[in-house]
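REQUEST FORM: STRUCTURE PREDICTION
Request ID: SP-0412
Submitted by: Lab K.M.
Chain count: 1
Length (residues): 81
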Amino acid sequence: MQQQHYNEDILPCVPDITRSAVRLTRGSALADDLVLETLARAWQARASFRPWTNARAWSHRILFNTYINHYRKKKREREAM
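STATUS: Completed
RESULT:
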């Protein structure tokens, strides 16, 4: 995916991603970090995005996987203590 396709497909999904991140994190400041990390991961994985793919669903899957990774990391850190 080129820069133009990324801008056309993924960036319009940012408000939806932000709402989902706020809901997942229950309104915490982590929501902004989660959105930024999601956009960064989407940019890194842009080669795997296909034009016929639903950009909203693709970006939300990245968001949810990123959230789960953070949740598991925090859980491991609590167990280690």
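NOTES: The CA atoms of residues 29 and 44 lie 24 Å apart.
Reviewed by: T.R.
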